[in-house]
Write a structure and sequence with these properties.
- By secondary structure, the protein is an alpha+beta fold.
- It folds into two domains: 4-148, Beta-Lactamase (2-Layer Sandwich); 178-268, Immunoglobulin-like (Sandwich), CATH 2.60.40.1170.
- It has seven helices and 15 strands.
- Strand 6 and strand 7 form a beta hairpin.
Amino acid sequence: MINSLFIVNTSCDILLEKHYKSVIHRSICDYFFEIQKKVDNPEDVLPVIQTPHHYLINIYHNSLYLIAVTLNETPPLMVIEILHRIVQTFIEYFGECSDSTIKENLVIVFEILDEVLDNGFPLTMELNVLQDLIKPPNFLRSIRNQVTGETNHSEVLPTGQLSNVPWRRAGVKYTNNDVYFDVIEEIDAIIDKQGATVSAEIQGYINCCCKLSGMPDLTMNLMNPRILDDVSFHPCVRFKRWENERVLSFVPPDGNFRLLSYHIGSQSMVAIPVYVRHNIVMKNGSTGRLELTVGPKQSMGKMVCCFYVVYICLNASLKLTMLVC
């Protein structure tokens, strides 16, 4: 599947190269650099680039490109998902995935890439299993490794590797048992001048932070699960029960993970819990004033939203001279 993996920055510097099969010379990245220099926005690089003998499949994150090189035609969405999983693993290990963290933790990065893929195929993608195999870096462990010559790589088989729930390691213990859920929704809406919603689409995520001892079995009931479309679950969710009862039943991994993502289309006509009022005043035909007021609707009951982020798309010919919030 994946023959080689390159991590490069926006300055066209190759930070890392990992070969899973035959060695592919780093000059293959020149095809990518040619296209990358032609775009104004680094995110506008084509995700799949065809060369005379290879395919370059890439993602962009935090001024870094992860480029997977394949010799044969491969499902690009699967490769892109693997690359996103690798980025998320780096974030969980190092706090962020950036140029500096890759350079500072190069040995651990290579150890992770060795375990995540085997001969170019996905092998160990679960974070809990990886953390059993490769201990996350910390100050005391790094000093001990320098003195003793040891590595972060464990010689013991992970406890969850052979169980029915490989995403959760055994023997987890906490003094206080807590579990937290964050519901994040991105609303793409068109609102008329009276404030009524013309159309709205919602992309939502439920993230979980689990700090429970033992092997907990959780059940979550949603108010109106029938309106959710294109639902994507973490492997811990029992899909059969969701199909029959629309109930989320799962044994959660330890730590942070995304429980599910979903989409709500415009045909569902879901009431948006925020109001938007706008006023446009033009002056002399060339300048004007746009006023936007955004706030929670009082009719929606008790609000549990922590904060709102508003994106305003303006025409490229407009020049924003002042913004007041």
